[in-house]
Amino acid sequence: MGLRDKFSSLTLELQLQISIILSSALLCTTIILITYYQLNWLRNEVIDESEKTVLKGVYADMEKLGEAETLRITEFLDVYMIYIENLKAIETKVLQLDGSSQILEAINGPIQDATLESGTVIYDYGTFMSKFTKLSSSGIDLENKQAIMDLIFPSLYNENIVSIYSGFEINEISHRYPGIKIEDRTYSPITREWYYKAQDNIGIPVMTEPHFDEFDGSWVLSVSISLLDGKGKLYGAVGVDILIDPLAKELSRYSILDTGFVLLISEAGNMLNIPEQWNYDEFYEMKIYNETIGITELQWDTIKNTSDKSIFIFNHTYDTKILENNNNITTYHAIKYTVRPYSDRDNATHYIIVCVNYTEITEQIDTVRESFHKTFVVIFYVVLAFALFVFIIIVVLLRITGKKIRKQFSQIEKIFMSIIDRGLLPDMTREVSFFKLKDNDKGIETLVSACEKKVKMLKEKEDCFSYFDWKDCRPNDCLIYSAWTDVIFPFNSYGEKKAMWKSVLLKLEKYDKKI
């Protein structure tokens, strides 16, 4: 017997209960699965959007910081570009003074650095030196005029300046403020970067790469410009050394997320500051392109040529000299900005690199992912609990109402059986028995005997009518009997097959013809 037949053999009440329970279970399961997949889809969408939002937010903050710092440093260097042009104008006016000028007569004359003690710094005036033991007449005339600048230098000096100086072709004279003694007596200004850069860029302020000031050891940038005579011929240059520390300290205040930072890099790739977490002892001569930082020289050239706000990635490895046997690699996302302090804004002097540790970005995304996962679990279990609660309520209600339904179906079944029994197999005498009546027939023996005969006659007529006398009013009872034995009786011609009410009622309707 198949599963379908087994189900059909159950009572109608039990079939109804099973159908409702299975339908409820299927509905609850469908709701749970839909909720799960919808939450899973929503989680993926939220994580993807969170990653985009976090990256967009971090990049936006980095761009704002990069733009602000680029503007600040550009303005800072602009000041000294203008400063050096003003210094040139003053120098030019002073050096064009007539030899008989009253100003020259009013000053005490130039001070040679050799008159000072080693290590002495004089802020009242400047000093000059030449590697030649004796100045020419042109040199003496030039230095007498240059001495006038000693009256002006103190008012031009500020806390960001290390020294103000000038150098000349004549006798390779160097004039410097504050006044110091130059220990290297072979010192010549014309061999220094600030001088030959000015010589190569006539009339344009130039800036050197970061370097140690050779006289006091400060980490400085030099800004200089050439001096020309009336015929446009170079005869000297003026310059100023600017402290890098104010720039570096300002940059060190910033932190992108937890360990991100801002780098200031010169055009040649020299780093003007270093993040604390990199922990290098000597960074002043460190290039941005090296194996430890993870940028090659070719990559640096490519980065310089990209447009501002360009994003690039590099993998920094900790210095193995400091952290032995450490191969930890940190991935940084960086945005580049260009510093152009020149008035024409064509030439770049420095680059701002805003860096963020990508792991910290992913940690934020992981935090969002973890938070949503917790929410996902809570929502899923709430839906699961609700579905199970509804399912249990349905089962309980079916069990509670089952008894009432069972009684109702039992009554209906009895009624239908009675209808079928009376309609198909009429037998009015089958319940009549004379055994008890005969045992107590004293005095009414004739009546009992007459009744028994009468019942026998009725029974004979019933039997005769059932089998032989239906004629045209109904089909032959043998045919009806054979048809109904296939479906009504528990044990019928098809084997052990219980009656199916649907078939029974349909056949009952079929044979229910008017006589």
Automatic annotation (TrEMBL):
Native species: Stentor coeruleus
InterPro entries: dCache_1
Residue stretches spanning the membrane: 20-39, 376-398
One of the Pfam families matching this protein, by short name: dCache_1
CDD domains reported in the protein's UniProt record: PDC1_HK_sensor
Domain Cache: 184-272
Keyword Zinc-finger: no
Membrane topology per record: Multi-pass membrane protein
Cellular location(s): Cell membrane
Keyword Membrane: yes
Entry keywords, A to Z: Cell membrane, Membrane, Transmembrane, Transmembrane helix
Protein name, per record: Cache domain-containing protein
GO CC terms of this entry: plasma membrane
